[in-house]
Specification:
Blueprint lengths: L7 H11 L18 E10 L9 E7 L1 E3 L5 E4 L4 H9 L27 E7 L9 E6 H14 L7 H7 L14 H21 L5 E5 L3 E6 L10 H14 L6 H5 L4 E3 L4 E2 L4 E2 L1 E3 L17
Antiparallel strand pairs: 1-2, 1-5, 3-4, 5-9, 6-8, 7-8, 7-12, 10-11
Amino acid sequence: MSWRRATREEIYSYYADEFPEYVDQLPPFITAQGPKQYALAFQEPHPVRKDGVPDKDFIRRDTWQTTASGDRTTPAFQEFTDVLEFIRHPARNDPLGRSEFALADPDLLDKSDPRPDAVYYALNHWERPWVLLVDIDAKTIAQERAAQAVSDEGTAQDTEALLEAAGILGADPAGYPYAFADIDRAIEYGFEVRDIFEDDFNAEETMVVYSGQGVHVYLLDTDAAHRYDAKSREVLNDLLQETYGIPIDPVVTADRRRVARLPYSLHTDVCRIVTPIESPNFDIHSATPAVIHS
């Protein structure tokens, strides 16, 4: 079984018909006004109102207006239904309103309202400490696997050549820089990380999320001593990589400005729902939305 990109019509149908059914299942820290930002990526850049400003294929929108000192004043979204309307019709419901930096009104253009290629929320938060997330990507696992396979032959090659030589590019899903086995391994790693959180850190609240091309692992306990600050995260990154050999993206854990894929949003590159999961035996094909037709 292979994968493909979701069509514009499938993306709209998913956010119009299926995604609203998941809103009540979102983690409790993902609210209209909790994360400091929501962000959208588009497959094709969309113009903004101001002349001379480049078209945007990625936008961030603050959930609150703030004073110069950083105090909150006015919320951009009153309810999560406002976030949903922004996702469905980004240009028509841009929180920037009539600002010259808002997305241009589709009614005034010779192109339609953009559809979100990806939906993100900020890990930095107004109502709780910065969310701790570990990212494990199947692409990284595939590259390491390919490098190991080819190194046994003593041949130096670039990444694509390595993947080709290791037989990964020819494996399903065709056309992607990893095999299904690499996603399965990413999920296994995700539950290994969860066990480390629970065993080494006495974590009581964790979550593993199938992200479409890997997993996100959350440690959601708030720590009174250091609140998992930047230095603590560096130590955690070293522990996972050097002691346990987990192939994580350390920047995601350590960078306060990072955003993460919104649970239950659609990963349009692979037509799969970003899904919280309970077992390393999770079947990735079960995350296929009803609107996707092979």
